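Hey, can you fold this one?
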Amino acid sequence: MIDKRNLHIDILRGISIVLVMLLHYSLAYRLHLSPLNEWIGVQTLRTIFFNGNYGVSVFFVISGFLITTNILRRYGSLAGTEVVHFYKLRLFRLYPSVVLALVVITVLGLAGLPNFSNSVHGKALGNGFFLVANLSVLTFWHNVLMESVGYFNYAMNIYWSLSVEEVFYLVYPLVLVIARRRWQLFVLGCLGLVVGPAYRWLYRSDELFFMYGNLACVDMLVYGCAAAVAARSVELGNGHRRLLAWLSLVAMGWVYMRGIGGNEAFGATQLGVAAAVFLVMVSGLPAGTLARRAGGPLAWLGSHSYELYLFHIVVLGLMQEILPRADMSAGRKLPMLAVFFVASAFIAWLVARWYGDPLNRRLRASGAGRKPAMNPQRRAASAVPVAARPGDRQGSV
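Sure. Predicted structure:
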């Protein structure tokens, strides 16, 4: 029986979501100014905590990998993608939970809580702006709105990445059915690999553009897609796979610790290449005992990364309403960090277990339509353990 999930990929997702959560907690409570600095230098802690946006870059690579893997498994080939069917599956997976998160944020904002209200540089945008903000998330241009308006809603700002992924989900299947020849996809992929760092370099002085723009992230997605295709043809023994996977993890760590500042254009490029190599190496790699035992908690976080991404910022916003930064002593920062992680994980589990997953299954059963018939090529491909099964809990972050 084939495992439905790849433990190594879930561990990488778990590491990524932890880095994102540490970033947001540190921006709120300055975690580098905690008892941790008695053992680790403040500058090292700042590097660890304030480069968490690289975690989102890794999510984009993983997303491209998993989506392409499932397209190949589900439809037999890239050109065989059934666009409407694909759109339905993405809609059923992503929308229930993000709609719930937006409802919670909107209600708390309308109740007057500052971390959930709309304002720019202290100037209120009014409750009516929730209509624009919510629509921007649900119709894939939230990052474009932020580029125009700026940071305007603490709890909703991080949803820029959902727009990047949703635009990818919208455009990618169309590209696959239009550019049906391999050389056409190759040329378009190379174009994406060039456009990404070029765009980041042009806008390197404005993080709203070099980090959040669709074109700023396109190469990360391309690396993931290319890795999924490459994984089907790479033939290496498990020993070599493990060695290259570890080396790619080390490379990712090196890029991460160099930081985003000063590496705006090509830091993400290097991270994307290393992440792609890791995904190729672990795509058919069985999980060893050490990985299962030591990586289990991270893998659980990775398997709930979408819900964690959506709701950890709600937890953190409420924490700041109750305990502002000025009232947070250095000695309380680590215990409250534990509270933050536990509360976020519990809410993510609740949302996934009792709302997102059941609704996703019900919608797929009733509204996804008939699956394409499995051709012999696809039947053979489905016997290869890659990343995840078509109906599992993968998708955005």
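The first strand starts at residue 119 and ends at 120. Let me know if you want another pass with a different chain boundary.
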